[in-house]
Design a protein that fits this description.
The chain is of the alpha+beta class. The chain is built from two helices and three strands; from the N terminus they run αβββα.
């Protein structure tokens, strides 16, 4: 699969925004890969680093996680 920041990066950014609204806590998120980017909200939140596709897999319920990553985002 070929990912682009123009298309897939926008989809991931939308997922991040929905995820942030759902958990409502501070965070620093660093997503790697062509669809990735850096996102943050608030201050002194935990830093999360992983591949953008893995982030989406986990939030959609197709991967195991804890902490803020346990916040489900239906998409």
């Amino acid at each position: 699969m070929v990912l682009t920041s123009e298309h897939d990066g926008r989809v991931v950014a939308d997922v991040v925004a929905d995820w942030a609204r759902r958990h409502g806590q501070s965070f620093v998120l660093r997503l790697e890969g062509p669809a990735g980017g850096s996102f943050s909200a608030g201050q002194d939140g935990p830093e999360v680093r992983l591949d953008a596709l893995e982030f989406c897999r986990v939030l959609s319920g197709r991967g195991a996680a804890d902490g803020l990553l346990a916040t489900f985002v239906p998409f």
